[in-house]
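Intended use. Records like the one below are meant for learning the mapping from a protein sequence to its folded structure. Do not use them to infer anything beyond what is encoded.
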Amino acid sequence: MHYFAPELGKELGALGITHPRAVNFAVRSAALGPVGAGTVAAAFYNYRYGLVAEHVPAVWATAAPADVLAARTRAVDGSLRRLLGEEAIASKEMAEAARLALRAAQACSRPGRPLYSAHADLPVPEEPHLAFWQAATLLREHRGDGHLAVLLAAELDGLEALVTHTATGKGMTPAWVFTTRGWTRADWDAARARLRERGLLDASGELTEQGVALRADIEEQTDRLDRAPYEHLGAEDVARLTDLAGTFARTAALAGAFPADLVGKG
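Structure written out for the chain above:
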């Protein structure tokens, strides 16, 4: 959510980081330290390396990772207060969500999960809404790191993964892929051609039966690798956390947290 928040651009801009892509790379990779373009491209998976290299590691000459992380926390605080309202921020439900999410995150594992592991080294904020956000970040990056392992096993490169996800109707539109990931229409068309050769896309760019099955298997295997936090939390508390988090997410979405044209086949 915070990647789309104006508060993030304002806070990073105060540090001298103004390009939207530089903001994105700095904020998400800062927990790793002042790493280079190769590390960021590997950990993020679906960005064009050339785009990453335009901003990393140069961004660390503008602001140190610790300063970026502090600015991110301020941006998250401001955006959550704006989108959810002070009553929700101070509610017992927010404190409960933070406790549950942090307990789930206790069962996350470090091996093979660089973004999760780096964020797990960061201190948990005392304020419940920021603690909840930190826990959600841990759970997100834990699942995301495992997802990349599954994509590699499926032999989908970063752009092919994006193309197939967009074809499900649940991924980013091509326009957003081009803007945020650095790929061009020619790159997109070439990836679609490769996927057609594998029998995963049809001539119109829709998933074939084989493509639908592969995407379903990718999600199933990702869930399997990510089951530990939720087994640790238990079914009853998972349901409760889902209800609490879902309510906050819907409130934020209705308040305009995400661009209206972000998701779809384009």
